[in-house]
Write the structure tokens for this entry.
Amino acid sequence: MALPRRFLIASAASLTALVALAGPAFAHANASAKAEQAGRTAITVSIEHGCNGNPVTGVRVALPSGATAVTGTNSGDWTSAVTATEISWTGGSMPANSSADFDFSLVLAQPAGETVRLPTIQTCTNNTEIAWIQSDGGEKSEATQPAPKIVVPTNSTSASTSTTAVAAASGSSTTAVARMATESNAVTDAGSETNASGRYVFLGVCAVIVIGAGVLFLKYRKHPTKS
């Protein structure tokens, strides 16, 4: 006996909603790095989408341990700011279905070839955000919201890592000495709370969708329609 049309439509709608909610998990925030002169490293953090349909209005990136002479690049309406623990951008807006790059440079303390994580939080309208702060789970499992990471390029640490702030380049924010531990900092601490609450909301929505589909199935199974 064929399933009723209304049940099929409801099931399809439920599946579509579930895929839409899970979509951001398949897109990540990424980072790339290249060596510059005087031992500096240029880093680009790429945000690939908004927060469940909401435009991005801010980005925070945790700085690697021992990083110095950090300079953020302003682009369009985005204005960068550097503290002793992170670099951030505010003032701009990235459409939910778009992507954007956020650039900065610094002197890294890590040797060439070492992998460095850059925990990142993107904030969006309607009080939403996504925390890209998780460590990779290895070959057996993959983090759903992994932190962007780079491999320190060759010659990035050839210059002396002075702890004295230097003048910012034109179009960039004021440079500051930035030192922090990436395991526990303002970005990862805030992101841990975001991950927990967001995960519970997502699981709750999934449960409602599955239960609703099951109720519809039982209803129409008990009361089949005539062909």
Observations:
- Helices lie at 5-22, 186-222.
- The chain has one domain: 28-194.
- Residues 28-194 form a domain with the Immunoglobulin-like fold (CATH 2.60.40.2230).
